[in-house]
Amino acid sequence: MATTPAATAAAPSLRSSRHGGPAHAARRAGTRTAATGAAFGVLASGAFAAIVPTTLDGTSTQADAEEGGTTAATTLAAYSANIPSATKATDGSTTGFFSPVSFAQPSAASGALQAAAPAQDADLASMGKAHEIATKIAAEHAKAAAAEKARQAEKARIDAIVAQGGLDGWIAEALDHMGLSQAYASGLKRIILKESNGNPHAINNWDSNAAAGNPSEGLMQVIPSTFAAYVHPDFADRSITDPIANITAGVRYMIDRYGIDTLDAGGRVGSHGGYIGY
């Protein structure tokens, strides 16, 4: 059909109103802006976006869709593919959502805990050492307490012997006063029995000492000069025949001259096995 000049002139005008002018430019800019924003949205959220040409008032235009050869339905279908996910959906399918990924960075709290770990180990070691020391101290205290208990028991025994009097009581008191063990009591008693038969007033008037005017006297048969030199200072004011004072003088002289083994053995022994006076 022949086209009239009016129709011919009208066609460009219609085309111009569809593709030209500020309104059309604004629509295309809006479409590009929406597409760019959607692209960033896809990257940021892991979702999908469909770019549908719209006008500034939010309504799509059939003309813009036809210009690109697509419609809203085809555009939506093109961008509606499932996005696979490593997380199974509740229905067993592999579609779902992307799980956000976080990169762990050492926080101030975790750093403080890591820094505190060596200190805690040192504290535990110190606690172990303190426990070990406390155990040793407790053992030493228990040992000391046991020793004190034994000493008190021995003292009670000695006191009982001394209270009974007689030779055993004198020996016990003399040894205790000199700080010697009561284990020497039996050897000392043997010496006393050999020297004086347990008589605190015994005097030897027949040996060389007697002939020289210095007779041996008392339980241990000591001469006056020996008594004065060796008697325990606590008994220095007592008589040579005082049982306890005499024993301390004789024992101290014997240890000084022959050694404590002589006291333990009960005196010296000759080649024939008999007792030899000191």
TrEMBL record:
A Pfam family assignment: SLT
Source organism superkingdom: Bacteria
SUPFAM superfamilies: Lysozyme-like
Low complexity biased stretches: 1-12
Occurrences of domain Transglycosylase SLT (ranges): 186-258
Disordered, as annotated region: 1-30
Protein name: Transglycosylase SLT domain-containing protein
